[in-house]
Amino acid sequence: MQIDYYIYLSLALFCIGIVGVLTRRNAIIIFMCIELMLNAVNLLLVAFSKMHHLKNAAVNTSAGSDGQLFVFFIMVVAAAEVSVGLAIIVMMYRNIHSVDINFLNRLKH
Amino acid sequence: MKNVLEFSYLIPLFPVIGFLIIGLGRKYLSRPLTGIIGSGVILISFLISVWIFFQVKEGNSGVVNYFNFISAGSLKIPFSFQIDALSSLFLLIITGVGFLIHVYSASYMHHESKEHFARYFSYLNLFVFSMLLLVMGGNFVILFIGWEGVGLCSYLLIGYWFKNTEYNYAARKAFVMNRIGDLAFLIAIFMIIAKVGSVNFSDVFSAEGLQKLSPSATIITLLLFVGATGKSAQIPLYTWLPDAMAGPTPVSALIHAATMVTAGIYMIARSNLLYSLSEVTQNIVAYIGLATALLAATIALKQNDIKKVLAYSTVSQLGYMFLALGVGAYTAAVFHVMTHAFFKALLFLGSGSVIHAMGGEQDIRNMGGLSKKLKITFFTFLIGCLAITGIPPFSGFFSKDAILLAAFEHDERGKILILYSISLFTALLTTYYMFRLLFITFTGKFRGTREQEHHLHESPALMTVPLIILAVLAALGGFVGIPEVFVKGGDKLTPFLSSVIETNHEPVSRSTEFFLMGLSGVLVVATIIFTWFRFKNYQPKEQKGFGKVLENKWYVDELYDKIIVNPLNKLSGFLNNFFERFIIDGIVNGVGRAVNYSSRQLRLLQSGQVGSYVLLMVLSILLLLLYQFFIKK
Question: Model ipTM?
Fold first, then answer.
């Protein structure tokens, strides 16, 4: 199995995520795009750790396991982030009755 | 046992202690106490100087090292004193005459308030301290410290009455003129360091040091001489000394007699071995001295301020000393410094007594006939005049004669009698203006106001006693240097100074020497008689023509104003109005304005739009990535 396909796939996912973040105004969509980027990275980490493991299993039985560990961390952090982020979006909606981030330009003051 | 000369540090120590006590306690010390402390410390220094002098006389001289003053690389400058014949003689003059002036001041300045009186005495003590440091210093750097200290103190004392703007200008002028000379002196010291690697007199004037210096002896000696012209008031830097009359009269006596102006003579006499290396410099020194002597004497002919006449006579006498230095008669120069210290201090203190009696009046046109009321002052002043004009057996005769003789010997080698004839002519001018001063002031009818006439009185004992002592010294002080033609072994000064000053002159024949003395004697007496007939019934009148030029000091001050002071003022004005305002301010304000402007532009980036922030972030990360992958190797 070529590693290339995994890289292309995760690159595509990451780019979709970036474009989504940059172009969309809906906070929830942006949020989903961020999740997409995180998962693109996760996919890449898993693919590389597997590749690494296959190469070095003879020398080191636990080779590549650290990449998979990272993925778990990222998933946990992403879950926490989702809960906080959604809470923020809910509060935002309650205050300005919109989830459009272009209304949120008061950061400059 | 340690060398007893090590105790010589006490000589400058006492004046500086006096300076500190009086200076710090000026609000608490009463006037008599201030006077006693101020004069007492100088008296103690004088007694130690006498003791040191006799030590030196017995052959105990040398350099005393105290501690390492400056140490930089291979250059080591110790804090050392050189105690030898030359410095011990100067110590006696400075502390001895200085003490008398201190005593006199205590009475002369009694009308000043307590605080100013103490300020005056503290400056006087500091002045003496600086001068002692100058003559005792064992190397050029210590000498320079004293040199600068003397300059500072003269500034402080000339501007003693600081509420008068004119006096402040005079003080500033003295300081600036001195600074010009000091710069040249400093450069000379640096050159000596560069050539010899040491500033100690013992190293510089050793055979080895002189050999290293001999290629650049002319330039170094010339720079040293420029330093000396500043301090000792020679052409072109002499104009500060007559203006220095702004200070109290005893200060003038101190500056003119015991301290300050003799510093240049001392420095050149100290460096006599170096000067002997350069004939060019010696000639320049001789001719500048001669020109100064003549110029100042002509100005003194027409001055009407009693102190101004004396001031120009000092400049003139200093010219004589430089003439002596230039023709290689260092001993004669030092001898004249000594006798001049006596009679010039006497004359200044005498004029102070006159001014005191006249209630502050200094214009001799308003005096006259004072000899009846001020008998002691008159007689002492007369002795001073006889001494300065060189009537035998007063002190000035011996020293001035030694200088004239040296000039004659120098001329004989060059076959023209220019130095001798001009210096003899100047001596006659000296006689004329001194006796003019004496006759106008002390004889004839009183020309002042009735009130002044009523006020006339002889000064108190504290002022007359120093006058009498100085008169005795001025009369008898010359006997240490009786020419060999009169008494075999009568000249005690030359053998005494021979350890410091090399003498190598072949004396002229006895008959020539007698003839020269007789010639100058007859001419001087004739001048006195001429002056008497001219001024016995003096009436002030307007000066016209050449007399007016002389009265206005050849317009030298005006000339300096025109060619130096005014262009400098203009340049400063230009720099202030244009360079400062447009270029310096432009740069400073420009930097500020640029920062302000760029900040305002950068502020537009902060739009508050989250999208644009993210876009910038992504672009930046992309740039970093590109850099990481493609550019960085």
Answer: 0.78
Residue whose C-alpha is closest to residue B473's, from B109, B99, B172: B99
- Whether A102 and B618 lie within 8 Å, measured CB to CB: no
Amino acid residing at B174 = A
The per-residue pLDDT for A107 is 62
pLDDT digits (tens, 9 = 90+) for B541-557: 777 777 777 778 888 88
Q: Give chain B positions within 8 Å (CB) of A106.
A: 608
Strand partners, B491: B481
Average pLDDT over residues B527-552: 80
The residue of chain A nearest to residue B603, with distances taken between CA atoms, is A108
Which pLDDT tens digit goes with each residue over B439-456?
A: 888 888 888 788 877 878
Residues in A touching B612 (Cβ below 8 Å): none
Structure tokens, B455: 């006020």
Yes or no, beta carbons of A106 and B614 under 8 Å apart: no
Q: Which of B72-76, B219-223, B281-285 has the lowest mean pLDDT?
A: B72-76
Phi-psi region of B360 (alpha: psi -120 to 50; beta: other; left: phi over 0): left
Of B607, B614, B618, the CB nearest to A105: B607
Question: For residues B257 and B179, what is the distance between their CA atoms, to the nearest angstrom?
Answer: 21
Q: Which residues of B touch A (CB under 8 A)?
A: 606-611, 614-615, 618
Which residues of chain B have a CB within 8 Å of the CB of A18? 618
Query: What does the alpha-carbon distance between residue A55 and residue A41 come to, in Å, rounded to a whole number?
Result: 21
Segment A33-38 mean pLDDT = 92
The mean per-residue pLDDT over the stretch B17-23 comes to: 93
pLDDT at B1: 41
Total Cβ atoms within 10 A of residue B259: 29
Sign of the dihedral defined by the CA atoms of residues B190, B196, B199, B205, in that order: negative
The whole-number pLDDT of residue A9 equals 94
CA distance linking residue B561 with residue A25, whole number of Å: 82
CA dihedral B557, B559, B563, B569 (to 10 degrees): 40
Question: Which chain B residues are within 8 Å of A29, Cβ to Cβ?
Answer: none
User: How far A101 CA sits from the closest chain B CA (Å)?
Assistant: 7
Mean pLDDT of B293-309: 90
Helices and strands (DSSP H and E) totals, chain A: 3, 0
Residue ranges of domains in chain A: 4-105
- Which of these, B386, B421, B402, lies nearest to B485 by C-alpha position? B402
On average, the pLDDT of chain A sits at: 88
**Alpha carbon of B577 to those of B99, B561, B567, B569: distances in Å?**
51, 22, 15, 12
**pLDDT grade, residue A79 (50/70/90)?**
very high
State how far the Cα of B68 lies from the Cα of B77, in Å rounded to an integer.
6
| From B608, B615, B618, residue closest to A107, measured CB to CB | B608
Residue contact B618–A109, C-beta within 8 A: no
**Nearest-10 crossing angle of helices B85-108, B31-57:** 160
Mark yes or no for CB contact B615/A105 under 8 Å. no
Q: Is B66 helix (H, G, I), strand (E, B) or coil?
A: strand
Residue B506 has pLDDT above 70, yes or no: no
One-letter amino acid for residue B162 of the chain: F
Topology of the domain comprising A4-105 = Helix Hairpins (1.10.287)
Sign, Cα dihedral of B229, B264, B261, B491: negative
User: How large is the C-alpha radius of gyration of chain B?
Assistant: 30
What residue type is assigned to position B168 of the chain? N
pLDDT greater at residue B536 or residue B169: B169
Is B432's pLDDT higher than 50? yes
Q: How far apart are CA B18 and CA B11, in angstroms?
A: 12
